[in-house]
Structure formats: C-alpha cells, structure tokens
Design a protein that fits this description.
alpha+beta; Jelly Rolls; 6-stranded antiparallel β-sheet; 2 helices; Ice-binding_C; Ice-binding protein C-terminal domain-containing protein; signal
Length: about 210
C-alpha cells in the first residue's frame, strides 16, 4: 500500500481512538457519590454543612445538601448507580470544579423526587461556569429521569446543582457525568481514511480484472 495512504489511515485511526477515549472518560470526580469519605451506613442520611453535618464528599463541596443511601427514611427510590445519592433540598446546593481543556462537553445526570413528602415541587438550577444552563422541576414521587445538555469550556469550570425552592421539597441527584464531545476534525479524518481504503480497493479490483 502507498506510504501516504498508510500514514493517513494510521492518523485517522489514532484520532478516532483518542476521540473515543476522551468521550468515554467521565471528567467528574465521584459523580455517583459512592465515595463519601466517611461512614454512611445503609438506611441513613446526613447533611453537608449545617446541623447533622457529616463532613465533606470527595470531589464535591456544598451548602446543606442531603446525603443519603438506598432504603433511607426519605422515600427515595433505589439509586441508578450504586447505593448513595445527593438530595437538593430547599435552597441547598452542591458543586465541583472541573479541570477542562478548551472544547465542547456533554453533561448528563439523573434526578428523582422525594416520595414520602407531598409538599411543593423542587426546582433546581444546573449552573456551568457561572451560567444557568437549565432549570429543572422534580415532582413529588417522580422516578429517575436522565437529563443532559452540552456546553463549551475554556479551562477550570464550576459545575453546580442549586435548589430554588424555599420549602422542604427534595430533588435527588445521581450519576453525574461530563464527557468530551469529539471535534468534527476527528470524524473528517476517519472519513478521509475510509475513502482512501475504498479507492485502493477499487484500484486493485480494476487491476486484477
């Protein structure tokens, strides 16, 4: 095979591999809250800050969010990923600083509603880099729902989930992920490489005829 064609194919393959690996890597530390950094027995809960303070959660800081496990006293459904979840209650919040290279990213997470309290709907903001990217409302007893959005970053970026309801409503949050979105050049290189493969195959077929 022509050396230039081989080099193009190798470059395209490497770009696709790097793009896929970047997309697959979750850039959020402890996105499912399974590493609280302290003992949280099954069926228990505590708060990050304020009364009943249980300390800090690895990777996250917050103002009075609820930290609880499956089978807790809050009517929470089983978590979609592991045994621990966060509850955004009233005006509490939780946040993390992400170290991101310049580019485009996809944020995904899951939320659900508190099931043992028939009070108001909990509304919370998803804030990325100081910008409100989404305002979500979670009804009483709502099951787990996947949410997602895309955003651009140029460096260190603060991600936060911040409650907006001045009542004892709760939105459960779990499985928070941020993944890089491959740049269009990656796909362009792959398509170019595949085109070269097709061209070589056709040329060889004609020569053999």
């Amino acid at each position: 095979m022509n050396k230039k064609i081989l080099a193009a194919l190798i470059a395209a393959s490497a770009a696709l591999s790097m793009g896929g690996a970047a997309q697959a890597a979750n850039l959020v530390v402890n996105g499912s809250f399974e590493d609280p950094g302290f003992a949280l027995p099954m069926g228990s809960y505590c708060y990050l800050g304020g009364p009943y303070d249980c300390g800090s959660v690895n990777g996250w800081t917050g103002g009075f969010p609820l930290m609880l496990t499956n089978s807790g006293p809050w009517g929470n459904p089983n978590t979609p990923d592991g045994n621990v979840l966060i509850g955004i209650q009233g005006t509490s919040f939780i946040q993390q600083t992400l170290n991101l290279a310049p580019g485009t990213y996809k944020l995904s997470w899951m939320d659900a509603g508190r099931g043992n309290y028939g009070g108001p709907t909990e509304t919370y903001q998803v804030v990325v880099g100081g910008n409100v990217m989404s305002v979500e409302s979670v009804n009483y007893g709502a099951g787990w729902t996947t949410k997602s959005l895309t955003f651009s970053a140029t460096g260190a970026t603060i991600l936060s989930f911040a409650g907006q309801t001045n009542y004892d409503a709760t939105a459960f949050i779990d499985k928070v992920e941020v993944n890089a979105v491959p740049e269009p050049q990656t796909y362009a290189m792959l398509l170019g490489g595949l085109g070269l493969v097709g061209w070589v195959a056709r040329r060889r077929a004609r020569a053999a005829a």
